[in-house]
Write a structure and sequence with these properties.
Elements lengths: L1 E5 L2 E8 L2 E5 L10 H17 L7 H21 L3 E4 L6 E4 L28 H29 L1 H22 L5 H24 L1
Keywords: Membrane, Transmembrane, Transmembrane helix
Organism: Saccharothrix ecbatanensis
Protein name: DUF2537 domain-containing protein
């Protein structure tokens, strides 16, 4: 197949059983806009050739480069080699059709989903035992401290309770989700509440 420029128009020539035939690019099954681009290139190439522009000039180089690009697109669409004579330099250029690849795209194996880690059983027996022991110790300590200071001054006992609770509150809050220390945290909270309830009952009675 040959690409030609005739009177500012692009013509595609080929041979069949009846001999050589020239057809307009619009009559061929070309990609979108390729036929119009070929005619536009032929018109510009004819104008540059008529002005006797130097073959190494910017306009000539642009026409040559554009011709190679369009010939490559024509060869790809028609799936055959295309030759053409550069209208500016007179050089015969042959552009081969791109090779078709029959290789199937490699399938991407999806990573297997990891099995969820088995959840540990909650040690209710041991945990509640630790909670009860800690609660008993904290209850006794807070109650004894509060009663001893209350004999001197109730305001002093109240201040001591506020300092103790305020000091251990951050640690208890952080330990509430730790697998082992959460039982200790539960015991501390239960012990403080039990001590305060005992102090309240003692005061009322």
């Amino acid at each position: 197949m040959e690409l030609r420029v005739q009177d500012g128009k692009a013509v595609v020539a080929g041979r069949d059983d009846a001999g050589e035939r020239e057809v307009d690019p619009h009559a061929l099954p070309l990609g979108a806009g390729l036929a119009d681009a070929l005619h536009e290139w032929a018109k510009v190439a004819d104008a540059v050739a008529r002005t006797d522009a130097p073959s190494d000039g910017a306009a000539s180089a642009l026409v040559t480069r554009r011709g190679r690009q369009l010939a490559g697109r024509l060869a790809a669409d028609m799936r055959t080699a295309v030759e053409y004579t550069d209208p500016v330099t007179g050089e015969l250029v042959v552009v081969d059709a791109p090779a078709e690849t029959d290789a199937e795209p490699e399938s991407v194996e999806e990573p297997e989903a990891e099995a969820p880690a088995p959840q540990e059983e909650t040690p209710w027996g041991t945990g509640l035992t630790v909670t009860l022991i800690v609660a008993a110790v904290v209850t006794f300590t807070v109650y004894t401290l509060s009663v001893g200071l209350g004999e001197t001054s109730q305001w002093l006992a109240l201040l001591a309770n506020a300092l103790v609770v305020g000091g251990i509150a951050p640690s208890v809050w952080l330990a509430r989700k730790t697998p082992v220390w959460r039982w200790v945290a539960y015991g501390v909270v239960a012990g403080v509440l039990a001590a305060w309830l005992s102090l309240l009952l003692t005061t009322l009675l």
